[in-house]
Amino acid sequence: MLFFKQYVLLFSVICILILPRILIFIEYIFLQKGCKNILFLYKKNRVIIDSIVSYPLWEEVNFRFYIYQFCIFWGYNQFQFLLLSTLAFVVSHIFYQGNSSVIKIIFASALAVVFIVTRNVFITILIHNVFNFYVYMIKVTKYGDSGKWS
Fold first, then answer.
1. Residue 1 burial (CB < 10 Å; 0-12/13-18/19+)?
2. Which end of the chain is more exposed for a tag (fewer CB within 10 A), N or C?
């Protein structure tokens, strides 16, 4: 039964990653009634889709689910999982955020604790999606341009 559950998770991850893009594409076909605008709109919104949907999904599956499975396999305790998961998450963000990614320690630790408590990667994916949505909204609002809350 555990073998079947792993395939259900893999199928779910693939569906979460691929279905929104397919559905957006189909919706634009019906709304725009032309293929030239569809590809342009997809390329224009790809950053939004990737940063709010795709990246959180892949990060949570890799940094929570797979690392947790690794820790169980090698007999690590929950605290070791928390450290390993947080460290991997922060180090992966250093490559494109630089030293400012150190602040991600709080976020990564919180998500690791949520995963330990719930054992549900979909909850951490949802939290990460919402967090990235808020970050995106802050970047495109007046605060993101001026650097002040007004």
1. exposed
2. N
